[in-house]
Amino acid sequence: MENLPIYIHLVFVLTVLLSVWLFYKAANRSNSVLIVLFSWLGIQAVISLLGFYQNSYAMPPRFGFLVLPPVILIITLFVTEKGKQIIDSFDMKMLTIFHIVRIPIEIVLFWLFLNKTVPALMTFEGRNFDILSGLTAPFIYYFGFVKQNLSRNVLLSWNFICIGLLINIVANAALSIASPFQQFGFEQPNIAVLHFPFVWLPGCLVPMVLLAHLVTIRHIFLKR
């Protein structure tokens, strides 16, 4: 991983910072959200730099320490009154434009494939069509919220389709990691997400993207 071109690291870190900034704006510039995001990024940076995730055959799977806390947090936000108050304060327009970050993420994944750290199936040349979510986000934002020409059903459909695209790549990526559960990518396992800074992709960016969709869907239903 140390032989990767520096521009890959740079573009990825800038994408993470852009994601945090857009999410911070969507959260109405909540300092609490900013503190949580940077704290989690910092914790995962330290853990990954110590090589904790590189033993992908450890049991229980160490990858769980990366992805389970954000999942638990998302569930907590949706089942507690305080959590509901937080997510209901988010700006649906900003949550939609937030998804443009999926474009540079897909570009970085393609570069990682070219440098033999992820399998081809994780790119838009393989099974990953998640870049479509990023490319369509500006149109959904403009026609759905600026011009208000899109119906509630169209907005819901777009969000559900994008969640499907996200689940598709997450499943393929997880099953491509060299581990007892590996099903794909045997010719080139997914090793990038076990190293810094790319642990931030499954540990922070994916949960943020998922949360943005789920909060938007909740907002749409509440406006019924």
Describe the structure in brief.
The chain is mainly α and 224 residues long.
Which regions have little confidence, pLDDT < 50, spanning 5+ residues? none
N-to-C span: 49 Å
Bin the helical content: 55-70%
Biggest sheet record: none
Shape: globular
- Work out the number of β strands: 0
Output the structural class: mainly alpha
Mean pLDDT: 95
Evaluate the radius of gyration: 17 Å
Helix run count: 9
Beta-strand percent range: under 5%
* Topology order in helix (H) and strand (E) letters: HHHHHHHHH
How does the SSE layout of this entry go?
Blueprint: H1 6-26, H2 31-49, H3 64-79, H4 81-88, H5 92-97, H6 102-114, H7 131-146, H8 152-174, H9 200-222
Helix pairs in contact: 1-2, 1-6, 3-4, 3-9, 6-7, 7-8, 8-9
